[in-house]
């Protein structure tokens, strides 16, 4: 008898957790589900769990790695400026009519690493433009949504290049199940407790109303001014449709909006960054007046510079997030090449667009009001890790008092 | 070394044939492709072939047998009146913008045989209503479209219930490849020759302009009056966007529109009919004034009566089609439980809706003009086989002269 690489009971629990905790799907609510074909075993369970939760109609939209590659390897040049607007507009309409949204990730994050970078970037831009109406409803939190992960074989091989495929899948599955808290007997109870802990953290930070955070660690001496009226977020969130959901399974971070013009000093990435199929390693940057004025990388420096040149906002911060070094994802010691996991392994900052939700009464603020308060705007939002076991963080109050927030990578209180 | 059940070279040729002969996809044209996940090996090849042919953007929409069953087995009752209008309206928009359409079939035709028939029928109705805007563009032949088949394992087990799965798949694959003419070295040339043969048949029939066809055979003595201004169709067809395509791979029939009120006599089905997961066998019907006034079946009689009671047009004919007994699909001796194949094994009639294209200048005719000429209207279109090796057919001219059309199941000339 052989043991399956992916424990079916844990997979059942992950489906149930994604539907009940991640989405908190409401009786009669429709669901639009995007997933790769490699994740079909989870997709099928999610569909069943969603209907058991009373779903109206579940519509899966399946992508496929080989179909994607068939395009890059065979399509005429003009194809790379095309995107299926009719499909994305349809999704926006479904969200407008009240459907929830789940995304399952599971493909090789470096799938396109060997393809023509110009084609990858043009196709990405065309897709982003076409997807915007649907994405806005998600980014504005108009509906309950969530992202969960399945240990697809190509992703597993990427994370564990030295292991046989079956073993790699088994290891990635274990890591995903642990990070998603579905290796516990009662994942719903575990998520309730976890959300309470994150809510206490963000309540304390909101009470402090720091003017800035000062990060120190190997290669990092960075003061991140926080936006006026910033609000810390983390864990379960209330969507505008009145449903409390967990947008990321897993999630270990509390996060808020930096001030776009008040970031000073140097930062060194503590982990490599996987961006659109390229790996950028050894990032070191200098901020002046909120803007990155110098940037180096030991690997992928050209990709980093291209990223920073996307638009004016790409050189400024849109997010700062706190994650202790003892986070279960950090303790796994793995690089997942996927932001859903890697950003939950360490304190991080994000280049680019900020979240309206990370302002007091953010859902009522217009674009100009967000900018006035120091919120950054950009077409990109790219998280990268700056935290580790030696990271210290002080909160600086408006009066200039220093309050310990992190010591040696852990919460100071 | 084991031989694969499905010859990859034949599969490559089927993809190429579906794109070049079936669709005749134009450079820069988009393609909307629906297929089951079981057909992914063909889907991936079709995507590559479409891009090699210069496709703008190929958008596959994948369904999945287990996802479908998860709905029937878990969804609340109200779910079965729901359909994804936003997705179907999007498809209609894509067709309106010029996209071509390919459907790949490959799932078990009896998938829903064990599910609640009321749920199956309600879900089918909701889906048909939502899909109508997209279907109209296909039925009106506004765009080039095609249907092709992949030997999915569950379908293969249905066709060959006594064989091990691998052998069943191998047998079904061979049958599909032969019927689709991709077991030949040059399928495109074979389709050109085949289309020429079908065009000669339909040209002769159009020249005769018969008033009626008289079918005789075991249990059948049926006079099928033809609609005024009827036109025979078959093989390659010109879509309204100017592209000549082959809507069915395979296709062996020439077909036209009967007169809804001029069918008299009795007909006995020569093969079982698979309808929405049920098998109806031993059908015997009597027509009076075009209308079925008596109907029996040795198996599935209740389903047959439900079908005939769908609407007034469900008891009248919308199509009559001629297929010789020597057709390769007939010679295979198989029952595929799938109309794409089974209707190409024998002469058949169809209950329900007629095709506008089977009238002279049909694309210019309104619904009323079609009805005036004797064209039938209904929500259904269900083909069933009445031909076999003993079938004789006479054409009856407007003057009453009899012209031999079929003798002993074969063309008489
Ligand atoms: Zn973050
Ligand atoms: Zn982020
Ligand atoms: Zn037919
Ligand atoms: Zn038909």
TrEMBL record, chains A, B:
Lineage, top-rank taxon, reads: Bacteria
- Does Hydrolase appear among the keywords? yes
What is the protein's name according to its record?
Aminopeptidase T. Metallo peptidase. MEROPS family M29
**Single GO BP term:** proteolysis
Query: What family does the entry list?
Result: Belongs to the peptidase M29 family.
Q: Which PANTHER family match?
A: AMINOPEPTIDASE, AMINOPEPTIDASE AMPS
Q: Name one GO molecular function term.
A: aminopeptidase activity
Q: Tell me its cofactors.
A: Co(2+); Mg(2+); Zn(2+)
């Amino acid at each position: 008898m052989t043991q399956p690489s992916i424990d079916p009971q844990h997979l059942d629990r992950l489906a149930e957790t994604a539907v009940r905790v991640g989405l908190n799907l409401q009786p009669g609510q429709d669901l639009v589900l995007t997933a790769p074909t490699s994740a079909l075993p989870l997709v099928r369970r999610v569909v069943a769990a969603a209907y058991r939760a009373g779903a109206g109609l579940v519509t899966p939209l399946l992508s496929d790695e080989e179909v994607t590659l068939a395009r890059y390897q065979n399509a005429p040049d003009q194809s790379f400026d095309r995107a299926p607007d009719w499909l994305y507009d349809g999704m926006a309409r479904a969200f407008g009519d009240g459907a929830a949204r789940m995304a399952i990730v599971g493909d090789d994050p470096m799938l396109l690493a060997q393809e023509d970078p110009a084609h990858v970037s043009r196709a990405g831009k065309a897709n982003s433009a076409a997807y915007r109406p649907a994405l806005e409803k998600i980014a504005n939190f108009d509906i309950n949504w969530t992202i969960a992960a399945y240990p697809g074989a190509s992703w597993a091989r990427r994370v564990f290049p030295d292991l046989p495929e079956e073993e790699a899948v088994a290891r990635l599955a274990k890591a995903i199940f642990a990070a998603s808290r579905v290796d516990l007997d009662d994942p719903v109870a575990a998520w309730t407790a976890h959300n309470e802990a994150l809510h206490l953290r963000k309540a304390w930070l909101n009470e402090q109303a720091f003017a800035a955070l000062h990060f120190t660690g190997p290669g990092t001496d960075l003061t991140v001014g926080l936006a006026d009226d910033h609000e810390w977020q983390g864990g379960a969130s209330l969507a505008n449709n009145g449903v409390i959901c967990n947008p990321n399974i897993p999630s270990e971070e509390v996060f808020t909006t930096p001030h776009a013009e008040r970031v000073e000093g140097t930062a060194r990435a503590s982990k490599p960054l996987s961006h659109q199929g390229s790996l950028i390693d050894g990032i070191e940057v200098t901020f002046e007046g909120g803007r990155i004025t110098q940037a180096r990388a030991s690997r992928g420096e050209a990709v980093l510079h291209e990223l920073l040149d996307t638009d004016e906002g790409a050189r400024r911060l849109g997010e700062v997030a706190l994650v202790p070094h003892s986070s279960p994802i950090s303790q796994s010691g793995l690089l997942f090449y996927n932001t859903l996991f890697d950003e939950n392994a360490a304190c991080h900052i994000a280049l680019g667009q900020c979240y309206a939700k990370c302002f007091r009464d953010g859902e009522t603020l217009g674009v100009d009001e967000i900018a006035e308060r120091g919120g950054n705007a950009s077409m990109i939002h790219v998280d990268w890790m700056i935290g580790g076991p030696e990271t210290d963080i002080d909160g600086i109050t408006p009066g200039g008092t220093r309050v310990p927030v992190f010591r040696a990578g852990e919460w100071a209180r």
